[in-house]
Amino acid sequence: MHLDCTTAQGPTVHERGFKCSECKAMKDSFEKQSCFVCNDEREETKTESKNRCIYNLCARQYHITCLCMFPQYKAVIPKIIICPLHVCHTCAHYSMAKASHARAKLVRCIKCPSAYHPDLRCIPAGSEMVTTKQLICPKHSLDQIAPHVNWCYLCSKGGDLVCCETCPNTVHQGCLPHKIHGGRYFCKECVSGRFPLHNEIVMAKLGNYRWWPALILPPSKRRPICIDSYCDCRPDDADPCGPTSLCINRITMIECIPSTCPAKDRCLNQRFAKRHYQSLEVRDFEEKGHGLVASESITYGKFIIEYVGEVIDRNELNRRVKENRQNTNYFLRIDHLMTIDAGQKGNVSRFINHSCNPNCKMQKWNVGYAPAIGLFATKDIKAGEELTVNYNSKYFASMKQECRCGSSKCSGYIK
User: How far apart (Å, rounded) are the C-alpha atoms in residues 112 and 139?
Assistant: First the structure.
C-alpha cells in the first residue's frame, strides 16, 4: 500500500508502525482463541498468557501450565511453541530424535493434544479409532481407573505409598527424585504419554483375584466400518443381488446384510456369510506337495471358498517369519496391519498352490463389518482340475523360492 492511501495521516504511519486490517483481525482472533487443553475454563489459568503453535499453520494456543501432562512440546521463542500434536508421544518417551517434528503421518486425539504414528507399535492399547486420522486416546476412553497396586513400582516394597491419578502405579515419596507438588501425582509414563501397547505384558487384576502378569492382545474384531450396505435390488427381480444384476454392493465388493437388503431371503450376495463354497478335494502332486482340486466344474467368476486362518498383526507376522523362514506360503495379507496365517488353523483353501498362469485369484470383500479374502475363478475350471493362484499378488507374504508350477509361462521363482 502507499502510505498516502492508508490513512489521511499517511507520513506519520511509518513512524509508529503499520498493520493492515487483515493482520489486525487475525491478531484479534488469536487473542480470542481459547486454550486447546482447558478451553479457558480453569480459574487458575484465566490470567495466564497463552502460547501459540507455529508448526505448519497449526495456530492452536495453550497455557504452559496446561501442558504439564504434555512435555512433548518445544519452546521456540517467548509465547511461540511447537505443540505436542506434531510428535508421536510413544516415540518421544524413548527419544525425541526419533519423534522429531518431521512431516510424518500421525493419528491425533480429538480431545487432547496427543498424537501417535498409525502403527500398533505406537497407538496405545484401548484407543478408540474414530477415523484413519483421529482417535480417542485412553486418557478419555477408560470407563474407570484401575485399582492401585499395594507396592512401590520402583523398589517393589510396600508401605506409605502415593498413587498415580491416571493408572495403577504407586510409589514411595522417598523413591522419587523430586517432591510432589499440589498434592497430585502422575507417574513418568502417564506424563510422557507412554501407555501400554498391544503384545506387551502388564500386571492385571480381575475381580478379587491377585495381580497377575497378562498379555495385551490386539482386538479380535476390527472396528465396525461405516459402510452403507443398502442396495436397490427387489425380491421380485430375476436375479436379486446376483451376477447379472446391477447391485451396487456386489459391484463394490460388499456383501449385503440381511437386515438392510431389500431382496431379503432371495438375496444372492451373501456367499461369504452363508458359506456357499464349491466342492473341493485335496490331492498330492509329488514335487509340489498337496494341492486343491475342483470336484465339479466351476464357471468363470464363481466364488469358490473363503481363505481363513489366524488373524495376526505385523509384529506377530515378523516373529513367525523369523522362526519359520522355509514355509511362509500360508500368510495372506488383509492390509498393512493384519495378516491371515493358515499354517496351523484354517480350511482346505490353505492347500492351494502357486502358478505363474493361475485359474483363480484372491479378492478382498467387506462382509458385515470386517474384511474377508475370497477365492474366485478367473476362467472356466473343469472337474478334476487343480486350482492355483499367483503368490506374487499383493495379498501373499511368501518368501522367494523356486517355482514348480510347470506352466509354459513359469518365471522360475516365486517372489
Answer: 9
pLDDT digits (tens, 9 = 90+) for 252-267: 888 998 888 888 889 9
The Cα 217–Cα 316 span in angstroms is 11
Residues 6+ apart with CB under 8 A from 345: 309, 310
Q: What's CA 163's distance to the chain center, in Å?
A: 32
Secondary structure in 3-state letters for 155-181 = CCCCCCCEEECCCCCEECHHHCCCCCC
Global pTM value: 0.46
Q: Mean pLDDT lowest for which of 112-126, 200-214, 292-306, 370-384?
A: 200-214
Q: Rounded to 5 degrees, what are φ and ψ at 261?
A: -75, 125
Q: Using 50, 70 and 90 to split pLDDT, how confident is the model at 303? A: very high
- C-alpha 249/C-alpha 296 separation (Å) is 28
Provide the strand spans (E) within 57-117: 61-62, 74-77, 80-82, 107-109, 115-116
Task: Give the tens place of pLDDT for each residue, 43-57.
Answer: 877 788 888 888 877
Taking the CA atoms of residue 59, residue 81, residue 166 and residue 221 in that order, the dihedral angle to the nearest 10 degrees is: 50
Residue 135 near residue 127, CB atoms below 8 Å: yes
| Per-position b or e across 242-280, b if 16+ CB within 10 A of its CB | beebebbbbeeebbbbeeebbbeebbbbbbbeeeebbeb
